[in-house]
Amino acid sequence: MAMTTTSKKQIKFGFDFTSVPDLVACIQQLNNWGYSYACIPLVHAKLKPDATTLDRSALVSRADVILQAETWNRVVVKLSEHLNLDLADSSARDRDAELFRQEVSYASYLNVFAIMFQLPLNGCMPNLARLVNVALHENMFINFYVRVPMTCGGRGDNNGICDSDDNSSGTTDTWKLWSAFSAACDYHRSVCLALELSVDLPDQQELDRWLGEPIKAVIAPTSIFLTNKAGFPVLSRPHQMFINKLFDLDACIFISGEPNQNVKPYFEYLSFIHDSNKSDKLYSYSYGYEDLLQVPLQPLINDLDNNVYAVFEQDPIKYQQYEKAITKALTDKVKSGSTEVLTVCVVGAGRGPLVNASLNAADKSKVAVKVYAIEKNENALHVLNYNNENYWHNLVTVVGADMRTWEFEEKCDILVSELLGSFGDNELSPECLDGAQKLLKKDGVCIPSSYTSYLSPLQSQTLFSNMKMFKSNTPMEYLHENAEQIYVVNMRNMYIISPAQPLFTFNHPRSDLERNNNRYTTLTFDIQQDCILHGFAGYFQCSLIQGYKY
Ligand SMILES: C[S@@+](CC[C@H](N)C(=O)[O-])C[C@H]1O[C@@H](n2cnc3c(N)ncnc32)[C@H](O)[C@@H]1O
């Protein structure tokens, strides 16, 4: 595929042809412009829109052999616009249903990239949804792109289409129409959104809400572009900002306009704004893992392997912050009059990055320390012993034990750990540290000293579909089990419905060790607009030592 390659990711570009008298010439033109994908009507222009014949063998599309199979894989075909599957007249409805079946069947035979159709803006679509479900049931490899204008006046020149006589729902909110349709298709992962951008963008909230939808294609009409002084197409600032967010979703961007105009500059301009968008280091690090659900680790029950430790150790920020926090704790102790050798216990030491941080901190603060590394994973102990001999000059005491039950004659001044899950306490840090607190002197310091989990309501059809399919290919089979599970995920295709609120806070050391760690609370969120609650997004904030957060 001829796609734009940048250090960040590839963008897919295409052109949306309104009619294609000569398909080979059209694909040639596409290549000349540097676009990769073609969006074309499936049915040849020779077939008049009002044709009623069911025998379209000579008319449907073109013989598939005129294009190579891999070229068809880069084609999105548009179903006939005149099909109306929800007509009251049953014979006309049945005729259109048969034409729909034929077109979908032929598109599926061609192995096209996707099948596109317009969502009826009168809100009348139950039979369309039924036929889409039937088609998906019969052919699991097809993808439907449902073309929806982001605002009601956004579909080409058909301004005010929602006000037409057959407007049965009376709604002008195209998001609601899409949402109802997608629910009628049970949020099937092969029913995706082709969002048509409008000249006037809706307000920020509505824009953000679209980002929670499975947008796989974006139709950018040439009419949304402005012309700069040099005569080249440019986008307004709000359009630029929105399209940059769409690039992140990996959607294919289709320019739509007159094919006889020079459309190459549109593609060049969009590539330019994509490349000038400042690159996000973390994003490129996690590229390919967006919206991928993973079950959180349970390092207390399961012993981690070396790959997992290696991933932890790549964190560019965390260990620097720990080193700073341990340095502060050591200097604070010395300032407060302590002259003896200070004892640092690293509990859950893994392969030793926090031991390194402790030794570095001792060097920096010029405080004499005695370091203990406590780890219950017997395999990680080999690495700790190796590091001790080869790098730590045998200055560290390596202990194979569970921190909750280890008997320690002395007490330590500083208890260092990193037992936090993505939601704070979900890897049982509070329970482990409560058990380890007996290792700490009365005036000892815990690093981290506290952490708080945060929660916000979330709309994301993509995450919801991924959740449904997590344990099986049959969405219903494990639905409830899957829905009760928490996941670690790098979220991209989502909309945060309301800002996050703090949930549970844990402090260390605790004065009320007799209290268990069960927590229950209720949060109330202020919701500004209609949306679908698919789940909750959680994260945590941690204070290593007062004044330090990561
Ligand atoms: C999230 S890992 C962090 C490892 C290391 N500190 C790092 O930053 O790479 C947590 C470690 O704590 C260990 N661990 C968990 N619970 C423990 C317990 N109760 N006693 C001792 N070690 C424990 C696990 O085996 C694992 O090595």
UniProtKB/TrEMBL annotation:
Site (Critical for specifying symmetric addition of methyl groups): F312
Family annotation (Gene3D superfamilies): Divalent-metal-dependent TIM barrel enzymes, Hnrnp arginine n-methyltransferase1, Vaccinia Virus protein VP39
Biological-process GO terms, alphabetical: methylation; regulation of DNA-templated transcription
Domain PRMT5 oligomerisation, residue spans: 450-545
One CC-aspect GO term: cytosol
Active-site residues (renumbered): E418 (proton donor/acceptor), E427 (proton donor/acceptor)
GO molecular function: protein-arginine N-methyltransferase activity
UniProt binding sites for S-adenosyl-L-methionine: Y309, K318, Y319, E375, D402, M403
Signal peptide: none
PRMT5 arginine-N-methyltransferase domain: residues covered: 285-447
Keywords, alphabetical: Methyltransferase, S-adenosyl-L-methionine, Transferase
CDD domains referenced in this protein's UniProt entry, alphabetically: AdoMet_MTases
SUPFAM superfamilies, A to Z: S-adenosyl-L-methionine-dependent methyltransferases
Domain PRMT5 TIM barrel positions: 34-274
InterPro entries: Arg_MeTrfase, Arg_MeTrfase_PRMT5, PRMT5, PRMT5_C, PRMT5_TIM, SAM-dependent_MTases_sf
Family label: Belongs to the class I-like SAM-binding methyltransferase superfamily.
Name under which the protein is recorded: Protein arginine N-methyltransferase
